[in-house]
Amino acid sequence: MSDAVIVSGSGRSVLGEGVTWSARDNAVYWVDILGLGIRRLLLDDGRVTHWTTPERTGWLIERTGGDGFIAGLQSGFHELTLPQDGGTAVVTRIIDPEPDLADNRMNDAAADCHGRIWAGTMPVSCEGETGTFYRLDPDRTLTTVDAPYTIANGPAIAPDGTWLFHTDTALNTIFRFDIRDDGSLGQRVPHIVFDGSAGHPDGMTLDADGCLWVAHWGGSRVTRFDLTGQAMRHIPLPASQITRMAFAGADLDRMFVTSAADGVDHETHAGALFEVDPGCKGLPTLAFGG
C-alpha cells in the first residue's frame, strides 16, 4: 500500500480521535469527540458500527478486569459498554477530576505496562492553560502528574514504563518525561519542537523499533521520528487535520489514522478514517488493569 486508503463506511467525523486496536475484537475503535460518537471497524469483514455517547468522549481503553472499556468523557473517567449492534453507549462514572471546570474535557490517553492510564484534559475552547495531565491507577486512585496544559495530546509510553512522550499542541512541543518508580514524572524536557510549517503535534504512538509516530494537526501527514527526534519518514494524507494513529492487525503491521472535519468542512476527505502502510510493526495495545 503506497498511498492512504479511505476506510469504506468510516463516515465523516467532526473530530475523529482516540483510535485504538482491539485484538480481543479484531477491530479498530475510534471516537468522534464533537460528533458525540464511537465507531468500530471489524477487520474480518470491514463492517463499521456506530454508537452515540452522552458527552464528548476523547478515548477508549480496554480493561483487563472486565468487559468493555474505560473511557474519557467530558466529565471524567467512566466505565463504558457498547450494545452489540450499535445504539447508545452505557457509561458509569468513576471519577471527575475537575468538577470545578465544567468547560474542560478529556482529550487523549494511553495505558502503560503496569495497567495505569495516563490522560490529559483541556479547555473545550482550546484557549487558556486549564488542562492537566493525570494518572489513573488500577485501584482507581487518581493523581495529578503535570500541569498546566492548553491542548494535552499523546501520550506515547515506553514498553517498560520508564518514560513517556506527551505534548501540549498549543506549544508545538513534544516533551519527554522519565517515570519514577512511584509513578511520578521527572522533569518536562523538550524533545521535538515543531516550527508550524507542517502543522502542530497531535496524537502519538511508538513502534516496535522504538521510533515515534506523530500526527500533524494542520499538516496533512503523519511522521516517523527516531528516538533522537530526527524525522525519518512522512506519509501524506488527503486531509489537513490529522489527529492520531494506531497499529492494528494480527501482525500489528497495519496503521489506521483519524482526522477531523471541524473547521475544514470544504475538504472532501476531512474526518475520514485512513489506512496507510507504516513499513514497520507496532506494539501491542495495553489495557487498564482494573
Automatic annotation (TrEMBL):
<protein>
    <submittedName>
        <fullName>SMP-30/gluconolactonase/LRE family protein</fullName>
    </submittedName>
</protein>
<comment type="similarity">
    <text>Belongs to the SMP-30/CGR1 family.</text>
</comment>
<dbReference type="Pfam" id="PF08450">
    <property type="entry name" value="SGL"/>
</dbReference>
<dbReference type="InterPro" id="IPR013658">
    <property type="entry name" value="SGL"/>
</dbReference>
<dbReference type="InterPro" id="IPR005511">
    <property type="entry name" value="SMP-30"/>
</dbReference>
<dbReference type="InterPro" id="IPR011042">
    <property type="entry name" value="6-blade_b-propeller_TolB-like"/>
</dbReference>
<feature type="domain" description="SMP-30/Gluconolactonase/LRE-like region">
    <location>
        <begin position="15"/>
        <end position="260"/>
    </location>
</feature>
